[in-house]
TrEMBL record:
Transmembrane segments: none annotated. This is DNA-directed RNA polymerase. Its EC number is 2.7.7.6. It comes from the Eukaryota. Belongs to the RNA polymerase beta' chain family. GO terms for biological process: DNA-templated transcription. GO terms for molecular function: DNA binding; DNA-directed RNA polymerase activity. Residues 6-78 form the RNA polymerase Rpb1 domain. One of its GO terms (cellular component) is RNA polymerase II, core complex. The keyword Cytoplasm does not apply.
């Protein structure tokens, strides 16, 4: 286990739409509201397997990590109207 350390500062920021698209693991973006298809996480769905394992028995499509190893990867939804 790593030793505890005191944080000296925390910085928050907002990513631009281009940065979000560039860093997103879901290209093409999430576009379906369904979570699963035939019992498996649906590609381009809210539980897209490129974002990390959906359960303890899955592996991540992005880093191949297990449920305990994968930190998770973010995706994005293109909002066409606002």
């Amino acid at each position: 286990m790593a030793p505890y350390r005191t944080l000296s500062r925390v910085q928050f920021g907002i990513l631009s739409p281009d940065e979000i698209r560039r860093m997103s693991m879901t290209n093409p973006p999430i576009e379906y509201t369904e979570l699963f298809e035939e019992g498996k996480p649906k590609m381009q769905g809210l539980m897209d397997p490129r974002q990390g394992p959906a359960d303890h028995n899955s592996r991540c499509f992005t880093c191949s990590g297990s449920y305990l190893e994968c930190p998770g990867h973010f995706g994005h939804i293109e909002c066409r109207y606002f």
